[in-house]
């Protein structure tokens, strides 16, 4: 595959240039900010080698207590609406909420944001219960090389994920996958990935770079190199011009953003929103997008939008206030 050869021969700039041209022609200049809204800190599986939740499972005595309150989840949705952030998906470990509970939460978020919700809530065969509140289903593939996958994520088989996505497509939902770079994959594994995207009719992909969590086997591993990450994204954009590509980068890797955008990212994710809002880190995201020549949809710094409560339902007021106070605290610390 030509893009893999280019990647292996360090022709990353060539890949990025080509990807950028394709991207601008097909997708224009808008860059979205995406927020994964977590439902719980509990995961029944708890054995994926890289995952923060795998370090928490032994510490959680009562899984019900690891669930977030519904109003806190809805308050987060309200703030995403105010700030122009997309809700990337509702996310949670296995076994934290039932299908009917997830449906109820998604329906309320749909009411708040007027956008149906993506789900990333594990492998499920109950998708037929969902309706207009859901737009798409995400398969958390993480690593697509089958041997590596079985080793790193022993309890969620690729086959089951693919079957779920096929069912999602049959029911009329969109389909997405998530991939983490830096788990030991090589550029050649793009062959597996591109086959999955093509054969599975995947419309959206979220790339993350490894965030080495203490207590996991990856704690002393580096996150992937910025140009490797950008080269992979460029290869995906060149191969799939219409694919929606979201790229995750943590607060300590904000300099990745410009290269990722020039490689074909549509959106950015994985930020600790309330910790970064109004700070130099949030403003740095805005600067990265600006100097990529793109238009940022949403804000990391506009307090007027944050405080605009014109359409918030009163029962969420106290929950919304908690998040706003965190953001205002950032402001006072930076003055
Ligand atoms: S299934 Fe998901 S939440 Fe659970 S351990 Fe694996 S990656 Fe973490």
TrEMBL record:
Under Pfam families, the record lists:
Radical_SAM
Tell me the Gene Ontology biological-process terms attached to this UniProt entry.
Answer: biotin biosynthetic process
Cofactors named for this entry? [2Fe-2S] cluster; [4Fe-4S] cluster
Q: Which UniProt keywords apply?
A: 4Fe-4S, Iron, Iron-sulfur, Metal-binding, S-adenosyl-L-methionine
| All copies of domain Radical SAM core, residue ranges | 29-252
Q: Which PROSITE patterns does the protein's record reference?
A: RADICAL_SAM (PS51918)
Its domain of life reads: Archaea
Q: Which InterPro entries match?
A: Aldolase_TIM, BATS_dom, Biotin_synth/BioAB, Elp3/MiaA/NifB-like_rSAM, rSAM, rSAM_sf
Q: Name one GO molecular function term.
A: biotin synthase activity
Q: What is this protein's record name?
A: Radical SAM protein
């Amino acid at each position: 595959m030509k893009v893999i050869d280019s990647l292996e021969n360090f022709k990353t700039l060539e890949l990025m240039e080509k990807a950028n041209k394709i991207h601008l022609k097909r997708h224009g200049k808008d860059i979205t900010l995406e927020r994964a809204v977590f439902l719980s800190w509990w995961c029944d599986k708890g054995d994926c080698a890289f995952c923060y939740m795998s370090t928490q499972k032994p510490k959680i005595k009562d899984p019900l207590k690891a669930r977030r309150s519904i109003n806190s989840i809805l308050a987060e949705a309200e703030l995403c609406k105010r700030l122009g952030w997309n809700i990337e998906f509702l996310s949670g470990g296995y076994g934290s909420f039932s299908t009917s509970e997830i449906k109820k939460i998604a329906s309320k978020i749909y009411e708040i944001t007027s956008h149906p919700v993506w789900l990333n809530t594990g492998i499920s065969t109950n998708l037929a219960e969902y309706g207009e509140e859901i737009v798409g289903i995400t398969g958390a593939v993480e690593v697509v090389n089958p041997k590596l996958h079985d080793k790193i994520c022993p309890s969620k088989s690729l086959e089951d994920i693919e079957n779920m996505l096929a069912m999602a497509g049959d029911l009329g939902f969109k389909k997405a996958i998530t991939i983490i770079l830096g788990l030991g994959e090589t550029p050649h594994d793009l062959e597996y990935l591109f086959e999955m995207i093509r054969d599975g009719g995947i419309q959206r992909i979220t790339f993350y770079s490894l965030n080495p969590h203490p207590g996991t086997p990856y704690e002393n591993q580096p996150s992937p190199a910025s140009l490797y990450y950008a080269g992979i994204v460029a290869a995906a954009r060149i191969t799939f011009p219409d694919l929606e590509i979201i790229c995750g980068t943590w607060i300590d890797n904000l300099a990745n953003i410009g290269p990722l955008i020039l490689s074909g990212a549509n959106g950015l994710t994985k930020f600790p929103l309330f910790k970064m809002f109004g700070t130099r880190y949030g403003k740095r995201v805005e600067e990265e997008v600006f100097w990529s020549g793109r238009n940022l949809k949403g804000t990391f710094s506009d307090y007027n939008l944050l405080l605009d409560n014109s359409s918030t339902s009163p029962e969420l007021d106290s929950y919304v206030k908690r998040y706003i106070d965190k953001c205002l605290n950032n402001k006072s610390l930076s003055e």
